[in-house]
Amino acid sequence: MSTVTPSSPGVSARMSRQARRDTKPEVAVRKLLHAAGYRFRVNARVPSMPRRTIDIAFTRAKVAVMIDGCFWHGCPAHATQPKSNAQWWREKLDRNMARDRETTEHLTAAGWTVLRFWEHEAPDGAAELVAAAVERERRTRNKGGGL
Fold this sequence. Notes:
- By secondary structure, this protein is of the alpha+beta class.
- About 45% of the residues lie in helices and about 15% in strands.
- Helix 2 (about 25-35) crosses helix 5 (about 125-145).
């Protein structure tokens, strides 16, 4: 962990107030899925990984949906690099991306299908992909004698 600190208490406070759940993109996808008849858990804990959550979880089908913010998760199209205190921010954002990879790998190893979307992606397109994955997993699990 770095010894570099945030550029100011004001910046630190402002960034800590950023929404961690129920962001507009998450809510938009959830509304579409709910309207289509899907039921899911919101901000479900990642099994065996304290302090990590799945934005939208279909626990029986084992489908995890993450909707990542472009800044915080390093979107290749929209991520920005702060100029003030650049080293601290680079390390912080790199840790976020490493944590994302670790969480995806952990869930995949546990038999989950992990879908990640960027906040700028169209909610209807994301919801369609999620619904298709859930239906596919339900069919696969039912075929194998599961739920």
